[in-house]
Design goal:
- The protein starts with 29 loop residues before the first strand and ends with a strand.
- 0% of the residues lie in helices and 34% in strands.
- Strand 1 and strand 2 form a beta hairpin.
- It is built from no helices and five strands.
- It is elongated and about 40 Å long.
- The strands form two sheets. The chain has a three-stranded antiparallel β-sheet, with no helix packed on it.
- 5% of the residues are buried.
- It has a domain of 53 residues: Rubrerythrin, domain 2 (Single Sheet), CATH 2.20.28.
- By secondary structure, the chain is mostly beta strands.
Length: 77
């Protein structure tokens, strides 16, 4: 249980508490992407597997496909 002041004892932290990044596999979420069409960097609200995203520069729409290893691929719609 965390102390009432909101601070946690660093010795009590469990590194394996929550999976992150690639360990999440298809459940991994992203907050940015590079457009495969125009190479523009696009900050974005959090998105995940099967979500649709739009490039803010060229306007091309993509479907996000995340594989079992947590790698993002964007397929043009």
């Amino acid at each position: 249980m965390a102390p009432k002041d909101g601070f946690r004892d660093p010795d009590m932290d469990d590194e394996d508490e929550k999976p992150t990044g690639r360990t999440l596999g298809r459940r991994r979420k992203f907050s940015e992407f590079e457009c495969p069409t125009c190479s523009a960097h696009n900050p974005f609200d959090e998105f995940g597997n099967e979500d649709e995203v739009v490039c803010n520069w060229c306007g091309v729409q993509f479907k996000a496909v995340i594989d079992d290893e947590g790698n993002l691929k964007l397929k043009e719609l």
